[in-house]
Specification:
- It is a single chain.
- This protein is an alpha/beta fold and 304 residues long.
- The protein has one domain: Vaccinia Virus protein VP39 (Rossmann fold), CATH 3.40.50.
- The chain is 33% helix and 15% strand.
- It contains 13 helices and 10 strands.
- It has a 7-stranded mixed sheet.
- Strand 1, helix 5 and strand 2 form a beta-alpha-beta unit.
- Bound molecules: S-adenosylmethionine.
């Protein structure tokens, strides 16, 4: 496609960005939305690493509570737990993997993967790419234990702390079932929903986050994310924002791909639109104190 032939630096110019946004809003964003079970181990290493680091800092005497909404076959949640375990080996973890499709929840609970083959084949939505490709397996030995028959088993110390739940992201009773969490992962689940449902689910997931805990939300329309999160008491975490935004290869292809990420920029509002991790600072915001967030990866400081 001609767009791909344009050098990356040129794609980031104001004119090309404006043309890209026009293409995206007039054409791409109107293409059909469809859910899939696509997931993979260490899908976005910068995101997994940053979340694990933030979570490990909250590992105190009480168990660290993590929920993955739209967990699919579990690769994302197992990756995050493995990274937390390496940052904080003694942390006690209580994790929940949640999805509305029971057979991917069963596959996640089983924790057995075959290189080059998705465990979500024959499930409700399209399976997407395999959780592990053959050449990726050697880099995942901290998570997956290779078996003589060629399968890969999630290591038992990562499996033991996870409860697998079949539920809907919009279910208001979920909080009664799993309680509030230190980290809520909501990646690549809201984007294909219609905007009303995605807003309701996002608000429901925000309510699951403990004060000082983190909401992690990628694969969602950035304007919808802005509308819901800007007036809230959630503070964007700017550490590694650029690396995280660029860190998932499946988000390439903008402006022609609906879930593609446009080039990272620091235009007004970027620190909500292009940030993936948010901290629940509701108590501070309720007092109407502006929160000075940390220096970001492009060397600026922001009041939100
Ligand atoms: C593309 S996968 C994302 C997997 C993982 N979070 C990741 O980022 O790699 C989306 C998952 O969300 C699930 N899902 C879709 N709508 C949902 C809903 N309303 N409630 C819970 N799960 C949902 C799908 O069944 C699917 O397994």
């Amino acid at each position: 496609m001609a767009w791909k032939l344009i050098p990356e630096a040129t794609q980031k110019t104001a004119l090309l960005r404006a043309i890209g946004r026009w293409i995206y809003s007039h054409f791409t964003s109107r293409t059909m939305r469809f859910q899939s079970h696509y997931t993979q181990f260490m899908r976005n290493p910068s995101l997994v690493g940053t979340v694990a680091h933030l979570a490990a800092e909250r590992a105190t005497s009480r168990p660290l509570r993590i929920a993955s909404m739209g967990c699919s076959t579990g690769a994302e949640l197992y990756s995050v737990i493995a990274m937390i375990r390496s940052a904080a080996p003694d942390a006690r973890i209580q994790a929940f993997g949640i999805d509305l499709a029971s057979d991917v929840v069963d596959a996640a609970k089983n924790g057995v993967y075959w290189p080059g083959k998705s465990s979500a084949a024959n499930s409700v939505f399209e399976s997407g790419r395999p959780e592990v490709l053959v050449h990726e397996a050697p880099q995942l030995l901290n998570i997956l234990n290779p078996q003589p028959d060629g399968s890969l088993h999630v290591r038992s110390h990562l499996k033991k702390d996870v409860e697998w739940v079949v539920s809907d992201a919009s279910d208001r009773n979920l909080i009664k079932r799993i309680g509030r969490q230190d980290v809520v992962l909501a990646n690549n689940v809201l984007g294909p929903m219609d905007d009303d449902l995605a807003s309701r689910c996002l608000q429901n997931l925000m309510a699951l986050v403990r004060p000082g805990g983190y909401l992690v939300v990628d694969g969602v329309d950035q304007e919808l994310k802005f509308r819901v999160l800007a007036p809230s008491g959630f503070t964007p975490i700017l550490s590694n924002a650029r690396e995280i935004w660029n860190g998932d290869p499946s988000k390439r292809g903008w402006p022609w791909v609906r879930w593609g990420h446009e080039p990272f920029s620091t235009e007004e509002g970027w620190c909500i639109r292009k940030v993936t991790i948010f901290r629940n600072d509701d108590d501070v915001m309720a007092g109407r104190h502006p929160v000075l967030v940390a220096e970001d990866t492009v060397g600026e400081r922001y009041l939100v």
